[in-house]
Design goal:
The chain has 556 residues and is an alpha/beta fold. It contains 22 helices and 19 strands. It folds into three domains: 179 residues, Rossmann fold (3-Layer(aba) Sandwich), CATH 3.40.50.970; 151 residues, Rossmann fold (3-Layer(aba) Sandwich); 190 residues, 3-Layer(aba) Sandwich (Rossmann fold), CATH 3.40.50.970. The strands form four sheets. A six-stranded parallel sheet has the order 3-2-4-5-7-6, sandwiched between helices. It is globular, with a radius of gyration of 25 Å. The mean pLDDT is 92. Belongs to the TPP enzyme family. MenD subfamily.
Length: 556
């Protein structure tokens, strides 16, 4: 059974031919032709998520894991606007989403009809492609059929080839609920785009061969693009220093995996920081988390920065020479054998390992705090999980600890917002089918609490909520911390816990507020898989910033 509406049939038919299966539907009546057709066809995996804000991030989590387009479907009006945070995140994180929005017919826009806004081009600043389909009332309207066919194909091809969100606005006139047993027309697959390759310019090799200090930064890489032997090959060149971020999913003994741990001790030492200055920089991956490395590289006079990879390039350091759109492994295996003698890598790996050797002494003396919790977590997290990291403090603390090579690590670093972290993690758990753990902060968790309003949460899904009763990251930033306005409008202190939310949504719940209770609570939390679990870890509000900043002072 499917809708009798012809342009809706075109969507259903083409999605099936392109093997686009995962459909996240939010309730409404204007989208009934598509809702009926998707939900009554066993080819599609349909999910019902009431809150469009959560639905958008849930869809993004599935697409993030499967690396294929996931579809969002909503009714007309403000429902569509609630997708915007997820659309913006997908745009900057380069995750393929197809947004289908039902709409009133064009002649009913801005005449006072209910649940009607200007939906056409509503995501104009953060969308790779958008279109509005023609309404088709008769099967002999061949011109409209062909126009829609072309637009639908272009939308799908764009989402796949350019790795990001597209928007298809679909106007419907009543009646909305009429159905037929068979589609009234066929639809063609058009212009499936092929992978493009770009040659590496000669100037790159010239700069590479002439540089004694080459810095390679690996940021967000989902999924990882290098094997161990690739990094072996890259680090065999003594003039190459590799720095990686937690979201790179790269673990190797000859790379600097804690960028801030290396830079913080020398950032105010002009001679030392100058010695680290590279002759050229190569970036691979998405958005860079470390503020220290961005500020540091912007200070240099060199203008030789190359970005490698087929995804988008950003002039993060204001020095981008070229974007080489080639697969990173192909780039790596095209590199010449080392031609310049250099101790650049050896020197800075020595510094990094020296700082690491000092860390145990610091961790032994700190009390119960955010940093102590992260130390415990990264010692005890199980192998072979999808690890989702919340934004703000969570991802920054995670950068200070060596990652487990069996983990697949993700974070919403496109717009770096706290909205949608829980919903994305749940979508990722559904999409991957793997045990999934979300580590998140209290503001992020409570902001996205509707993410728990979801009937598809796997029983082995787990949330570690670090609750320091406010936006702890703001205590690390400059500003007077004792003023009333700070705690009210920046830190936004509160006295909430997650116990009632967990009871309402069927999560197992445990709360601890001291190190002595951690081991027993954690073991029970990690090994209970009869229902989703949440471990709430309460930490002191006013000492976390001092312990973190003192860590960097200690290394100096």
């Amino acid at each position: 059974m499917m809708t009798s509406v012809l342009h809706a049939q075109q969507i259903i038919q083409l999605f099936k031919k392109r093997d686009i299966k995962n459909i996240i539907i939010s309730p409404g009546s204007r989208n009934a032709p598509l809702t009926i057709s998707f939900s009554q066809d066993s080819f599609f995996n349909c999910y019902s998520i009431v809150d469009e804000r959560c639905a958008g991030h849930f869809a993004m989590g599935i697409a993030q894991q499967l690396q294929e387009p996931t579809v969002l479907l909503c009714t007309s009006g403000s429902a569509l606007l609630n997708y915007y945070p997820a659309v913006a995140e997908a745009y900057y994180s380069e995750i393929p989403l197809i947004v289908l929005s039902a709409d009133r017919p064009p002649h009913k826009i801005d005449i006072g009809d209910g649940q009607t806004i200007r939906q056409k081009h509503v995501f104009a600043n953060h969308i790779l492609f958008d279109t509005q389909l023609e309404m088709i009332t008769r099967s002999d309207q061949k011109e409209y059929l062909i126009t829609n066919e072309r637009q639908l194909n272009k939308a799908i091809n764009t989402a796949i080839s350019k790795h990001g969100p597209v928007h298809i606005n679909v106007p419907f006139e009543e009646p909305l609920y009429n159905t037929v047993e068979q589609p009234s027309m066929d639809v063609k697959v058009m212009d499936v785009l092929k992978d493009e390759t770009t040659e590496i310019p000669a100037a790159f090799y010239e700069n590479w061969n002439n540089s004694k200090r080459k810095l390679v930064i690996l940021s967000t890489l989902n999924p990882p693009v290098f094997e161990k032997e690739d990094i072996d090959r890259l680090t065999a060149d003594g003039s190459v220093l590799v720095m990686s971020e937690v979201s790179s999913n790269i673990v190797h003994e000859n790379i600097v995996w804690g960028i801030d741990t290396l830079i913080a001790p020398i950032e105010f030492d002009d001679d030392q920081i100058a010695a680290l200055q590279p002759d050229m920089v190569v970036t691979i991956g998405g958005m860079i988390v470390s503020k220290k490395i961005k500020q540091y590289l912007r200070r240099f006079e060199t203008n030789i920065h190359y970005h490698i990879g087929k995804r988008r390039a950003y002039d993060t350091f204001f020095k981008l020479a070229a974007h080489i759109k080639i697969a990173p492994r192909k780039w790596l295996h095209s590199l010449p054998v080392q031609t310049q003698p250099s101790t650049y890598q050896e020197q800075w790996l020595h510094h990094f390992k020296d700082y690491l050797s000092k860390r145990p002494a610091y961790f032994e003396k700190i009390g119960w705090s955010d940093m102590k919790v992260f130390e415990l977590l990264f010692e005890h997290l199980p192998d072979d999980i999808v690890l989702q990291l919340g934004n703000s403090s969570t991802i920054r603390y995670a950068q200070l600890f060596k990652m487990n090579a069996t983990h697949r690590i993700f974070s919403n670093r496109g717009t770096s917002g706290i909205d949608g972290c829980t919903s994305t993690a749940i979508g990722a758990a559904v999409g991957s089918g793997m045990p999934t753990v979300l580590i998140t902060g209290d503001l992020s968790f409570f902001y996205d609490s509707n993410g728990l309003w979801n009937n598809y949460i796997p029983k082995n899904f787990k949330i570690i909520l670090i609750n320091n009763s406010g936006g702890g990251i703001f205590r690390i930033l400059p500003g007077e911390k004792q003023e009333v306005y700070f705690s009210t409008y920046f830190e936004t202190t509160h006295h909430l816990d997650a116990s009632h939310l967990c009871a309402m949504h069927g999560f197992g719940y445990t709360k601890i507020d001291e190190e002595f209770a951690f081991a027993k609570a954690y073991q029970q939390f990690i090994h209970t898989n009869t229902a989703p679990q949440l471990l709430e870890i309460q930490t002191p509000r006013e000492i976390n910033d001092k312990i973190l900043l003192d860590y960097f002072k200690f290394l100096r």
